[in-house]
Request: fold
Amino acid sequence: MNSLLTPSLQAGSTHRGFSMRALVWVSFLGGPFSALMFGGLNASKWRKLQTDWPLFALFALISALATVGLGLQTALDVRMTRLVLRGLGPCIAGLLWLRYIRSFKAQEYSNLPEESPWRAGILCVVLGGLVLFLFGLLGHLFR
Amino acid sequence: MNNEHLTLQVERLLEVGRAHDAQRLLTPHLQENPTDFDALVLASRAFHALGDHTQARALLDTALSQSPHDVEARLHLFHLQEDGQEYAAAEETILALLRDLPENGHLYALYSGLMFDTLHLEKARQLVNEAQRLNPSSSYARVLDISLSLIEGRGQSSTAALAELVCENPDSAPVLYIAVDILLKRHRDRQALELAQMLVRLNPAHKETLELYVNLRVRTHPLMWPLGPMKRWGWAASVVLWGIMMFSLQIARRFLSPAAAGVVALFFITYIAYSWLAPPLIRRWVLWRGTS
Reply:
């Protein structure tokens, strides 16, 4: 009972995450690393990043291996590689949705102010795209 | 306040949402008795209802300086802080109230609502359980319980509980609003429309209720049927539609003919154009039918 009556909020510490729609757009446009960056921002807003960072690290490792691996493949054409990497972003977004389904649903009911996703979204698309390019280049160099 | 009749009248006016009238009654009284505690709290509630947060807070601060331990005034302070998104301060206020009244189920429900709003779902669940243990008939606690059950994925039990709650409170606008909201999130548009009709009957001059009713009439219009997947799954349906479109175009181009691919493309373009144009046109039609 005492734990129930322990304060949980600190001034300025309460944030609403970005919507699933924004996450899908970012993951579709930027690929897997953008999805992880944007999803990580959401997780930190929901105070879940401290416990869930291994999950993000695992997804990042899988994405890196997939990107480098695809770069190493000579059998695949550029178009197919792009398609697979573009598909990986929404897949990660879907997995993050499954992990945070409660938080996504809860914030639909919440009165917390909504933050515009544009700035964070564009930043994540650019940075995630850059990371994707660098890993792809790495795979290409070792081909 | 010396005049009990005035207090009752103002409280009744505030209950039915006539804050302007309440304020008009209170103004001359407060000019004569500027330190009347009850009048200050009621005036603060009236300003809060009218959306003047600053004035409401100033009046409440004056009242609380006279009687800092008054429960009603502190509860109103909690609501003001919550609406003003001063969540940490609101938590401090409700915890102080709970320390003074540890067996009050409604306070637990209010604290649970605050935790729900700030996305502390586990704590909100524990608090609402405690609220229901202390006060099983609390409508607010039951509404929170239903909302939390929906988020936790226990849709069946929440629908039954919601039906029971609405049956018990058919004239309670807040319960109906929450029920409409929950039904909308469960994509039960027809049932939501029926409740919205009840809300319009309860409060026909309320603009937001009318807006909600019109939106639901649009959503349930037969011409919106082709857009069912978009209404139901939103962004996910858009993604799937995009995937199907790309796949169908590739199939038509490779295995049929460029002309067949053109027909497929035309079909999808028509559907997308319909999804953009139909809702505003149906809305105009509904409004025209409603006003003619």
About this structure: The first helix of chain B runs from residue 4 to 15. The mean pLDDT of chain B is 85. DSSP finds 16 helices and no strands in chain B.
